[in-house]
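Run log, item B.
One chain of 286 residues. Sequence copied directly from the ordering sheet:
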Amino acid sequence: MSVYQENIHKLFAKTSRQLTKAAAKAQPGAIHRMRTSIRRLEAILEELSPDLDRNQRKLLKVLSRLRRRAGRVRDIDVHVAALRSLKLSDEPGRKTQILSKFADLRIARERKLVKLFDNVSIRELRKRLKRAEQSLQISDDFPGPLETAYDSFVRLAKKNETLSEKGLHQYRIQGKRARYVAELAGDEAQARAFVSRLKTMQDVLGEWHDWLTLAQAVAKLTNSANNSPLLSALNNIARAKFHEAVRVVAETKRAILASDPQKKLNTSVSPRRDPVPYRAIATAAA
């Protein structure tokens, strides 16, 4: 068994365990680990095996529903932590009010997640995982995890040469998929370097996205006017995180495109373009 095949086997087993743990108790850590395992498995199945059988397609459909429902719970956990970390002398009552609304929203979303777990037999889901692994057919011309991940990143970079908000979202989502595939290569030096660059990029993009969505959520939950100090502070943080994300993505792009692992692709770095100006979140109540 090759290194990447062994890692695929470990991923299926880990996903099965994380589903059981999250179904037993919807704690923040368990939810996060379940979502990450599902994302990894989705990336592997869709990138390495384009011809999925009926069971694999059904499995991905169910896992996707669980991931999205869990994501809504996770978003609240992240927003609460970020809002609590924000030191703001103005509007202390508004911050407390929003935290209370988040708490109620978290309860409602957790109930929906638990209800979905009730409707989905974890035992049956684990059986589907086992069958999906057994029937997984990887193409004979599969170039390897690192090469596949690199090609995926090149396509991503070509489609998103201008680093707008929309482009950053694509780097955030598709960059994860490339990283998860590359991780199958194990301790290979080039793979470690590739994964490290993508992880750094993801961390920065994740912070930007978390503050952006927090500001959007607060705008929906509050009846504040345009001069709300809290919403202005969140907009300022999101704006700063956006510019930091643009810088890191540009650096990551240049570094990866200059490091063709097998010299298979003659990809040159596109001329640097000015990013699309950041579009601040409307401070008026939604």
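Observations after the first pass:
- The mean pLDDT is 85.
- The chain has two domains: 1-140, 143-286.
Flagged for discussion on Thursday.
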